[in-house]
UniProtKB/TrEMBL annotation:
SUPFAM superfamilies: Ferritin-like. It comes from the Bacteria. This is Aromatic/alkene/methane monooxygenase hydroxylase/oxygenase subunit alpha. Gene3D superfamilies: Ribonucleotide Reductase, subunit A. It comes from Variovorax ginsengisoli. Keywords: Monooxygenase, Oxidoreductase. GO terms for molecular function: monooxygenase activity. Residues 415-457 form the YHS domain.
Length: 528
């Protein structure tokens, strides 16, 4: 007689592939009392055809339990470093107080985009009927929220000591130049889910993200801001997943149906150009705002777009995708983009959240070295004249408002692709109204979707219409100062947070705290 073996055997561990399938496909179901088309109405209206959602694969096969473990470990390390930075007064280890203006630009212009991406991916995930895609969007949504939080927490330490870091969310929704990044994300979020993912995951995260994060994080390291470097590193593993998602989703769409190819190509053209125009702010920061520079904008463009981007689009050519339209125009502008932008901001620094200044002689020498064909010939004379005016006590700010491009919302200071001495101007008419554009790229985008872009909230128009004053403002009172009212509406304190660096409280406080005389600064060492 034999006895039954009652010994319990442990269940076989699921492999990574099976576990990922259970935690994604295994969580989905087809609806019954409502049709799938009614539950997911937005993933077909763009014209994209998906025949097999199960072909969507996450190369990382990351499940939510593993995700929380990885992120929790990163959080512990990040906040330990931030705490050490604060306890050791790390704000005094930066190279030069002018560097803080890059943080003001980042905090008001980039960090709110992380939160917008969090909302956008949550909406995109809800709109996609494929379970794998929904899980991937959910994780990226949480990533983006985490990035916004860590950036706000890290930079908040500097808010105790420097001006202009006190109200980034309020400024992001109102300040004139911040409408450039804000409009980019609102344009994407008001599109369909596939266009949103192409705009953010592919065009921004994969094609252009190195041109955004490399300058800021490497610039922080070169200038002694190790807290900012740390939140950049903490986000980097997330960014690698985001970049992979962006590339894989485009390939997935292209492989599903040949009819998807022209739709994706149109999006690639559109979002490359919109992203490139947004990066004007980064080009200016790299060449002019970093006291110690990492590389020039021109060098970064050559490395991260011409070489890396060129290789990417060679790979995508087998799907029928070509290089983005007007990429050759962007390449022509690489030797002048930052100079045109900084010259404009130098005129409008009194209405910005960060300080401006004329580059020092050794900095102009660096620019001459990096831009031998353009800087000395076209831009150095202007900056030397401005420096002389400042020495004579004639520092000048422009109190009129510039014309804005209807599409990218950047002031119309860009020059013709083949003539850097002539402002580029294009226009289109729609329902009897003329609309103005800074380039052929922006005009094409408008002409394809005019009913969308005629609704653009253009700050200059809103200011002239009286919509950018604090509630209760009476512009008819004697002596009314419209600029002061607009700055109050922006939460920029006139005379404290804005204007020329040499007369700013940041400079005065730094000299008082450190005993340095910044007016007699030695030449900064050149960075190769």
């Amino acid at each position: 007689m034999t006895h039954a073996d009652n010994t319990k055997r442990p269940a076989a561990r699921l492999g990574l592939k099976e576990r990922y399938a259970m935690m994604t496909r295994g969580l989905g179901w087809d609806t019954t009392y409502q049709s799938m088309d009614d539950v997911f109405p937005f993933d077909k209206f763009e014209g994209i055809k998906i025949h097999d959602w199960d072909q969507w694969e996450d190369p990382f096969r990351l499940t939510m339990d593993a995700y929380w473990k990885f992120q929790g470990e990163k959080e512990k390390k990040l906040y330990a470093i931030i705490d050490a930075f604060q306890q050791n007064n790390g704000q005094f280890n930066i190279s030069d107080p002018r560097y803080l203006n890059t943080l003001k630009l980042f905090l008001t212009g980039v960090s709110p985009l992380e939160y917008a991406a969090h909302r956008g991916y949550a909406m995109a995930g809800r709109s996609l009927r494929g379970v794998g895609a929904r899980v991937a969007c959910q994780m990226q949504s949480i990533d983006e929220l985490r990035h916004a939080q860590t950036q706000f927490h890290t930079i908040s330490h500097f808010n105790k000591y420097f001006n202009g870091l006190h109200d980034p969310q309020h400024m992001h929704d109102r300040v004139w130049y911040l409408s450039v990044p804000k409009s980019y994300f609102e344009d994407a979020m008001s599109a369909g889910p596939f266009e949103f993912i192409t705009a953010i995951s592919f065009s921004f995260e994969y094609v252009l993200t190195n041109l955004l994060f490399m300058p800021f994080m490497s610039g922080a390291a070169y200038n002694g801001d190790m807290a900012t470097v740390t939140f950049g590193f903490s986000a980097q593993s997330d960014e690698s997943r985001h970049m992979t998602l962006g590339l894989e989703v485009v390939k997935f769409i292209l492989e599903q149906d040949p009819d998807n190819v022209p739709i994706v190509q149109k999006w690639v053209d559109k979002w490359f150009w919109r992203g490139y125009r947004l990066l004007t702010l980064v080009a200016m920061m790299m060449d002019y705002m970093l006291p110690k520079r990492v590389m020039s904008w021109s060098e970064a463009w050559e490395m991260y777009f011409e070489k890396n981007g060129g290789a990417l689009f060679q790979d995508l050519a087998r799907y029928g995708i070509r290089m983005p339209k007007y990429h050759e125009v962007a390449t022509k502008e690489k030797s002048r983009l930052s100079h045109e932008a900084w010259a404009t901001f130098n005129n409008y620094g009194h209405a910005a959240d960060f300080n401006v200044w004329v580059p020092r002689p050794e900095e102009m020498d660096w620019l001459s070295e990096k831009y031998p064909e353009t800087f000395d010939r076209m831009y150095r004379p202007r900056f030397e004249w401005l420096a002389e005016q400042e020495r004579q006590g004639k520092r000048w700010f422009n109190n009129t408002l510039p014309m804005l491009c209807q599409t990218c919302q950047v002031p119309m200071f860009f020059t013709e692709p083949d003539d850097p001495t002539k402002i580029c101007y294009r226009e289109s008419s729609y329902h009897g109204m003329k609309h103005h554009f800074c380039s052929d790229g922006c005009k094409d985008i408008f002409d394809d979707e005019p009913e969308k872009y005629v609704q653009a909230w253009l700050p200059v128009h809103q200011i002239y219409q009286g919509n950018c004053f604090p509630e209760g403002t009476d512009p008819t009172v004697p002596g009314f100062d419209p600029l002061a009212a607009v700055l109050k509406y922006y939460h920029i304190n006139d005379g404290a947070d804005n204007g020329e660096f040499n007369t700013s409280p940041d400079k005065a406080n730094w000299e008082r705290w450190t005993g340095q005389d910044l007016s007699a600064q030695p030449a900064q060492p050149k960075v190769a």
